[in-house]
Design brief:
This protein has one helix and six strands. The chain has a four-stranded antiparallel beta sheet with strand order 3-4-5-6. Strands 1-2 form a two-stranded antiparallel ribbon.
């Protein structure tokens, strides 16, 4: 899930019918409005209203690392369009 709390919460379910458990919480500097999973579920793209994009990859059980971010690119060139805009879905 994502929203105005400046985080993305990732949940897992061990088997059908069991309760969902918080697996990880990814922190951001502002709200996160959109997330999109890869078809394999091993990567996650997150976007915020200021055009920032982060792509995370699963690097182990309950461990997610940033493999791409346009935040440094945006700081260097604030007038540039976000190159990751196509990564996010609704």
């Amino acid at each position: 899930s994502c929203g105005d709390d400046n985080s993305v919460a990732l949940y897992e379910q061990e088997s059908t019918g069991q309760a969902w458990q918080l697996m990880a919480r990814l922190q951001f500097d502002g709200p996160v409005w959109r997330i999109s999973w890869s078809s394999t579920g091993a990567m996650l793209a997150c976007t915020s209203p200021d055009g920032a994009v982060r792509v995370y990859a699963e690097s182990g059980p309950r461990r997610w690392v940033v493999v791409h971010s346009n935040e440094e690119e945006e700081a260097a060139s604030p007038g540039r369009a976000s190159p990751g805009g196509l990564l996010a879905g609704t």
